[in-house]
Design a protein that fits this description.
The structure is a single chain. The protein has 388 residues and is an alpha/beta fold. It folds into 3 domains: 113 residues, NAD(P)-binding Rossmann-like Domain (Rossmann fold); 186 residues, 3-Layer(aba) Sandwich (Rossmann fold); 81 residues, 2-Layer Sandwich (Alpha-Beta Plaits). Helix content is 34%, strand content 21%. Strands 8-7-6-9-10-11-12 form a 7-stranded parallel sheet, with helices on both faces. A 5-stranded parallel sheet has the order 2-1-3-4-5. A 4-stranded antiparallel sheet has the order 14-15-13-16, sandwiched between helices. The chain is elongated and about 90 Å long. The chain starts with a strand and ends with a strand.
């Protein structure tokens, strides 16, 4: 029986995929085998030593101590692309909100008073303050062409916009899905210089913190729009506010309210609702639950932010999963330890990702406690798990 701890409300569509005869799921549970969460901050949490996997029902994992889990040999799974359509729709909505002054116009319409005739008179006199712009012919820059960025780029192009993309690490899968009409920028600075609007879709890393800054805003066309439905720290908010005050930027649309953002008339700050649709929550939960189940039951790894992708069909043998530091001669030492314990290797796979390597083997006969201790004693081995 596997025990699953949930730290947030996880969609029932996902949790129902856990067979109750094999899984116990609760928001309070002792000695969990895995943790499922959405936005809960785990950095100050005392994570039980029994935890073998963590599943984030979403894309970003800034709320999870990934490095700490890597050192313990624990994979952290996420659900890339599961909320892509939801975020894409909100980005497109953000473009319309910004260019058509919809929020400001709505505030004005709600503020007028009097009888209907007086309201009509005030509306006709005041509507000229909300003249906006149309999207066709304008150029949108998309920074980051993952699952979300590709959908945003393709949809904007279908709306008649010119689209320029930048992603030096674009995957083959994303490249296949990207419209051939999307132009390529060779540098991020080139993208900013060619665009009327820029939408960012990258994770928050040291390299991306403050990616949208004063220097890059300065080279944009006048009256630009910045959209940030990725992570708050990717945009230098102070630089954006200053550019808005100087009329260099026309509008800033984001998913991250703050005192400065909320007070500015040209900022549209939404309450972090990019992935807040029933469909996205279901998709994220289903994806991450399936991945955690496959790891617990079979040792396979898909969509882990800190572990390599590994998949091996089951055989009649007993399966063992070994996490170790990615250093030379680890497979040789593991094989030697297995031979010492008279284990015959039926099938074996070894993959690495950064500093982490993962070896999975099917062996016979059944693995003894002595064999597990022999392998665990190898310098550099982080965790050993019999998957039977």
């Amino acid at each position: 029986m596997f025990k699953i701890l949930t730290l947030n409300n996880i969609s029932q569509e996902g949790l129902e995929r856990l067979p109750r005869e094999h899984y116990e799921v609760a928001s309070e549970i002792g000695h969990p085998d895995a943790i499922l969460l959405r936005s809960h901050n785990m950095h100050s949490m005392d994570i039980p030593e029994t935890v073998k996997a963590i599943g984030r029902a979403g894309a970003g994992v800034n709320n999870i101590p990934v490095d700490k889990m890597s050192a313990r040999g624990v994979p952290v799974f996420n659900a890339p692309g599961a909320n892509a359509n939801a975020v894409k729709e909100l980005v497109l909505a953000g473009l319309f909100l910004a260019y058509r002054n919809i929020c400001q116009a709505w505030d004005f319409a709600r503020s007028v008073q009097g009888d209907d005739a007086e309201i009509h008179k005030q509306v006709e006199a005041g509507k000229k303050a909300f003249v906006g712009f149309e999207l066709p012919g304008r150029t949108l820059g998309v920074v980051g062409l993952g699952a979300i960025g590709v959908k945003v780029a393709n949809a904007a192009q279908q709306l008649g916009m010119k689209v320029i993309g930048y992603d030096p690490d674009i995957t083959v899968s994303s490249a296949w899905m990207l419209s051939s009409q999307v132009q390529k920028a060779t540098t991020i600075d080139e993208l900013f210089s060619r665009c009327d609007a820029v939408s960012v879709h990258v994770p928050l890393l040291d390299a991306t913190r403050g990616l949208v800054n004063a220097d890059r805003i300065r080279v944009m066309k006048g009256g630009g729009v910045i959209l940030n439905f990725s992570r708050e720290g990717i945009v230098d908010e102070a630089a954006v506010i200053q550019a808005l005050d100087e009329d260099k930027l026309y509008s800033y649309v984001c998913d991250f309210p703050s005192n400065a953002a909320n007070k500015h008339k040209r900022v549209i700050a939404l309450p972090h609702i990019g992935a807040s649709t029933k469909e996205a929550e279901d998709n994220c939960a289903i994806m991450v639950v399936d991945q955690v189940m496959d790891y617990l039951e079979n040792g396979n790894i898909l969509n882990s932010v800190n572990f390599p992708e590994v998949s091996m069909p089951r055989t009649e043998g007993c399966r063992i999963g070994i996490v170790n530091s990615n250093v030379p001669n680890m497979v040789g030492q593991i094989s030697t330890a297995m031979a010492k314990e008279n284990l015959n290797i039926i099938d074996l796979i070894n993959k690495s990702k950064g500093d982490i390597a993962y070896t999975m083997a099917d062996v016979e006969p059944k693995i003894s406690d002595a064999a597990v201790k022999e392998i665990a004693a190898i310098k550099g081995v982080l965790s050993v798990r019999v998957i039977d």
